[in-house]
Amino acid sequence: MPNYKITIQYDGTDFFGWQSQPSGNTIQDELIKCIFKLTGEKINLIGSGRTDSGVHAFNQVANFQITNSLSEFKFKHSLNSILPSTIAISELIEVNNNFHSRFDAKKRSYLYFISSAKSPFYNKYSYLYPQLKDSDLPKLRDISQLLIGKHNFTSFCKKNTDTENKICDVIEISWRKTKDLLIFKIEANRFLHGMVRTIVGTLLNSLKSPKSYEYISSVLASKARETAGKAVPANGLFLFKIRY
Q1: Domains in the chain, start-ordered, CATH in brackets?
Q2: Which residue in 138, 139, 158, 174 has a CA-CA distance of 20 to 30 Å to 145?
Q3: Backbone angles phi, psi at 78, to 5 degrees
Q4: Average pLDDT, stretch 38-50?
């Protein structure tokens, strides 16, 4: 059976995340439904990873196998024509049958947008945090380096996560300022449920502490979610890139 890799962009505002649910209204459910309309087959759509309710994606990757070969260009445009305006397929290609969008992924990266001033253009896709100052940026960059490398990130994931292995290898964390928008980027081999939003919230929370470095180190070492800061809202989070 031919195996197809698709790259997807979506606005997650009105969806209950990526993962299929009995109640429906997820990105995965919408794609499966639309592919069924075009092919008559209910495919098994495998995503590179989950995104939570309200989280967006620039480049989510998924793959599916189907009985008959597809015309890649025609099928991509046909699928885009029936998907809601909040979901778009940016690429559809046939790949080796062994390709698995989740297990073959080597690195994943996310962006989080924080706005320091109210704006009708940023409101929907960023976290308004007006207390942030330009002078906070060097400190955020320095403190973030404490999270680089292989660590147990139990403190930064949701308590109800069913993942036993909490070790993640964080490769890069960066902060970039452009006018009133602060862009946080993180890349790792894998992420835990709620990890990125809790990291951002904890790093922002560390600015309130006179001993920011000790605070972050103690949260990491504690392996207890209650020691970390409150997770920032989902609307500012974007799955940025999957590397294979």
Answers
A1: 3-95 (3.30.70.580), 107-243 (3.30.70.660)
A2: 158
A3: -65, -40
A4: 96
